[in-house]
Amino acid sequence: MPSNTRTCHQCKAKMPCGIQTCKKCGQLLGFKERHTKTLEEFRKTAPQWAAKTKKAGNGSKVVDRALELVEKMKALGHVPLLLWGKPTKGKNAGWNADMHFPFELPPEGHVLLRKMLALFDGLLQEGGEMGEAREEDGKESRKEQEQMVEAKEASSSAEPPKKKKKKKKKKKEGPTTR
């Protein structure tokens, strides 16, 4: 029978399964045990599955199912955002980023989503193969710093305007009697 607690890998604290970050050290927790086993099993057969799916021309069906799952998450009350990249072929070989967000937004929200898509696209273009780890000396490039500043500015401008407090009017006192 599965346990309803899990252990943080960093500080070894025990906590309920529903928690996604450790309350003690703040570390992001991994998947639940059953998810981990399922993903490990899939990753072993992923190359064969991908080759068979591509050969049969069913790649678009997988994307359609993912979009359907996003809609199902919305129906359950979640706020999902799906970002994916697809490699491009030909002279301009690289990546093409796309996203799906199943909610209506005001114009400011569309601006933020476009910036998020641009950041994701930049990550894809800079990272090349996403499965390979990039070795860096820990310093961020000028472009990455500018993108982080733009993202922070966009998130700070996305905050709803604060309501102004109304000043209380002083009551006019009538004529005083002695």
Tell me what the structure shows.
With 178 residues, the protein is an alpha+beta fold. It has two domains: 11-57, no CATH class; 58-128 and 142-157. It has four helices and four strands. It has helices at residues 33-55, 59-75, 107-127, 142-157, and strands at 5-7, 14-16, 82-88, 94-100. Strand 1 (5-7) and strand 2 form a beta hairpin. Helix 3 (107-127) runs antiparallel to helix 4 (142-157).
Produce a short descriptive summary.
It contains 4 helices and 4 strands, in the order E-E-H-H-E-E-H-H. With 178 residues, the protein is α+β, with helices and mostly antiparallel strands.
Number of helices: 4
Beta-strand percentage range: 5-15%
The computed structural class is: alpha+beta
Give the uncertain stretches in residue-range form: 131-142, 156-164
The N- to C-terminal Cα distance equals 85 Å
Tell me the strand order in the biggest sheet.
1-2
Overall number of structural domains? 2
Summed over residues and divided by their number, the pLDDT gives a mean of 76
Q: List the secondary-structure elements in sequence, H or E.
A: EEHHEEHH
What level of helicity do the residues show? 40-55%
The count of strands amounts to: 4
The biggest beta sheet is recorded as: 2 strands, antiparallel
Rg, alpha carbons? 25 Å
Shape: globular
What's the structural blueprint in terms of helices and strands?
Elements: E1 5-7, E2 14-16, H1 33-55, H2 59-75, E3 82-88, E4 94-100, H3 107-127, H4 142-157
Antiparallel strand pairs: 1-2, 3-4
Helix pairs in contact: 3-4
